[in-house]
Specification:
The chain is of the alpha+beta class. It has 3 helices and 9 strands, in the order ββββααβββββα. The strands form 3 sheets. Strands 1-4-5-6 form a 4-stranded antiparallel β-sheet, covered by helices on one side. Strands 2-3-7 form a 3-stranded antiparallel β-sheet, with no helix packed on it. The chain has a two-stranded antiparallel ribbon with strand order 8-9. A hairpin with a 2-residue loop joins β5 and β6. The longest helix has 14 residues. The protein is globular. The two termini are 17 Å apart.
Length: 154
């Protein structure tokens, strides 16, 4: 079993102001912030961290849990406002509304593998990387596709 994730202890990713539009965070994620973020002037994007995980663990469990291992969870991007976690897209928490306040895609500048890779979640949110253009969805083009489903069935 191989686990590839950011070492949080080797320098915490920066926390940046959440402004409408696209931003690159931690040089690994392309993040789309909705225009209505202006309603939360103190909103920031930063790492979930252990404290943030404690805050959202119950909500994630109510949604069916996550297959994302604990060392990777704490380095996921999250949206905070007034000191509270508002959204963690990779855990299925996108804020209020049908499209949510924030969406995040893993898009590192250097790929781990040429053919792309997936870190599949049991939920509909999959961390994926493809060598396609930034902002593209999962490699098969379907949002929420679970590329590991066929493998688990066998």
């Amino acid at each position: 079993r191989l686990l590839v994730c950011r070492e949080v202890g080797r320098g915490r990713p920066a926390t940046v102001a959440a402004r409408p539009g696209w931003l690159r965070w931690d040089n690994r994620f392309r993040i789309r912030v909705a225009d209505r973020i202006a309603e939360l002037p103190d909103a920031v994007v930063g790492p979930l961290g252990a404290e943030g995980w404690q805050e959202v663990a119950r909500r994630v469990a109510e949604r069916g849990g996550t297959a994302i291992p604990p060392p990777a969870r704490v380095a996921l991007p999250c949206l905070r406002a007034a000191g509270r976690v508002i959204a963690v897209p990779h855990l299925g928490l996108t804020g209020d509304g049908p499209r949510g306040l924030v969406d995040a895609r893993l898009r590192p500048p250097v790929a781990l593998a040429d053919g792309g890779f997936f870190l599949a979640s049991r939920r509909s949110h999959t961390i994926s990387y493809s060598s396609g253009p930034m902002g593209a969805g999962p490699r098969d083009g379907r949002r929420g596709a679970d590329p590991m489903a066929k493998e688990r069935e066998t």
